Backbone:
């Protein structure tokens, strides 16, 4: 009996299109079994698109979310408007490296002096990636290579938050683990089973890593630099208290595409 593509479920159709180019075979049906067991389709396919970049997920790092993509696009737009020649960014809690890779792929590198000419105002971005998980560091390197990011535009650093970070940055981009462990029962079973818990949960109130991050982030910020940090909407008041406690001067909270407070810009 001939099987039509319309007979497949939505995720199966996506898998068939992206991984098997529309031609089902034995391996495809094995992958369908993985989907039926609850494994996320992005892990089964092996990658996820993020702002035009192909983010490999072979090391089973946290799957990039559309909420993150939403605010990173705004970061990229702002970086492109910057008036300084060289912009130094830090992607901390980097995971797959999707944030920093997207910045590097969408913002040009600094032009050589001999070719700048009339384009000398065009900003060039470099990114340091920081994570404490060796698996994430390996994943970041894969994604830098797969997206043709040139050496010299990035560093990959093994660091527990700022422990091994020495430089200062124009942009610090952070997506820390922020889900409260008390809300574990509300998380999808497939997320709990297949995605790395250390990238999801931030202690009882979800603020464990946010506190560590904000307590030191300003020490690594250049004059006129900015911090972009993602969080859970229920943490807005708590984060505002921390910003006051740690002596930050200015901040603004923003909502995601679903109408919930999702990220803060601190300067």
Residues:
């Amino acid at each position: 009996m001939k099987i039509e593509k319309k007979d497949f479920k939505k995720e199966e159709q996506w898998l068939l299109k992206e991984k098997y180019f529309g031609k089902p075979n034995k391996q495809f049906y094995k992958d369908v079994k993985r989907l039926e067991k609850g494994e996320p389709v992005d892990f089964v396919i092996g990658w996820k698109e993020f702002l035009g970049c192909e983010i490999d997920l072979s090391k089973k790092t946290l799957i990039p979310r559309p909420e993150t993509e939403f605010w990173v696009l705004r970061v990229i737009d702002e970086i492109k408007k910057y008036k300084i020649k060289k912009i130094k960014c830090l992607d901390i809690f980097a995971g797959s490296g999707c944030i920093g890779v997207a910045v590097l792929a969408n913002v040009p590198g600094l032009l050589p002096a001999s070719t700048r000419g009339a384009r000398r105002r065009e900003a060039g971005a470099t990114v340091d990636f920081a994570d404490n998980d060796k698996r994430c560091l390996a994943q970041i390197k894969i994604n830098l290579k797969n997206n043709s990011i040139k050496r010299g535009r990035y560093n990959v650093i093994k660091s527990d938050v700022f422990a091994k970070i020495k430089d200062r940055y124009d942009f610090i981009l952070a997506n820390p683990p922020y889900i409260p462990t008390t809300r574990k029962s509300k998380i999808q079973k497939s997320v709990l089973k297949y995605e790395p818990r250390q990238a999801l949960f931030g202690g009882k109130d979800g603020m464990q890593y946010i506190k560590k991050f904000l307590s030191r982030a300003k020490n690594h910020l250049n004059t006129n630099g900015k911090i972009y940090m993602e969080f859970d909407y229920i943490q807005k008041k708590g984060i505002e208290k921390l910003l006051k406690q740690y002596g930050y001067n200015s901040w603004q909270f923003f909502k995601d595409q679903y109408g919930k407070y999702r990220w803060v810009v601190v300067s």
